[in-house]
Amino acid sequence: QLQLVESGGGLVEFGGSLRLSCTASGFSLDYYTVGWFRQAPGKEREGVSCVTTSGDSTNYPASVRGRFTISRDNAENTVYLQMNNLKPEDTAVYYCAAGWRSGAPDSDCGVEYDYWGQGTQVTVSS
Description:
The chain is mainly beta. The chain has strands at 3-7, 10-13, 18-25, 33-39, 46-51, 57-59, 68-73, 78-83, 92-99, 115-116, 120-125. Helices cover 0% and strands 48% of the residues.
């Protein structure tokens, strides 16, 4: 069974840190671009960061640049999202997704995401 499982979410105070993990089972992430997305209540899902198979990474919202870092550990078949200096507006369900096929020009890291995790809740208290 091919699946992605996120972990590491939770409740953290303003200014705190969390590291989210996205682990694949049933397939190797070596060949996939992996993205992190988030969806806050009442808002559309937005891309947060993505990392290509060659390790190139991109953070999308200006609000997370300098605070969030994506990384991948192919040996662990896992992609991480280190989140520092968290703010209440970072509160959301965070999802990871993997893909390899070329996507629309405005797609995150240029791929279509075929596999999605179930999400992990991140709540930042003020």
